Amino acid sequence: MSDWPCISGFHLSGGAAVVTLSHQQAELAMASAMRKMGFTDARATPGGPDGGIDVLSSRAIAQVKMHKSQVGRPDLQRLYGARGRDHRRSMLFFSLGGYSSHADEYAAGNGIALFTFDAKGAVRPYNSAARSISRGADLGAPRFIVDDNLRWLFWGVLLISPVAFLAAFDLSVPVLDYIFALPGCAGLVLIVAAIGGFLKK
Prior knowledge:
The protein has 201 residues and is α/β, with parallel strands linked by helices. The chain has six helices and eight strands.
């Protein structure tokens, strides 16, 4: 799945520019990593209360922590509780700062896949469950981080552009009008959905 660029923060370290992710960008990067692992519908959840879920898929849920300190057992317990009764869903946890020994034990006993990631979004499996889920996936830092709203806006503009072109140059041709009417309507819906998504943030 191709992604568009999203501007990340930069800071200087030893004279070199280092990319750092915001929390939202980290969630988008982890959703991208999950799609590479086979959770093809994984998406970052909208801002606001998420009940312990930062990335959602029909087959998995995930939490993303940007803390530099280690994740403890309570964070994993919240993820376990957020899954509810649907035990078919895999549980994944992504941490910038690693995990405590208690968290590691709890994850092993409850089938939670633990991953770590760096400031550029490169993901590494931390426990055996994570290695099993991610086997064969390229989890290096994403070249681009995409927001679903940007993707919808892009496709909306692409679909509506032929209609706009015909209207702008008064090139009304019945056959073309019929051909582009449905894609144009779909494009308008996508643009409205994208704008609505931006306004919710």
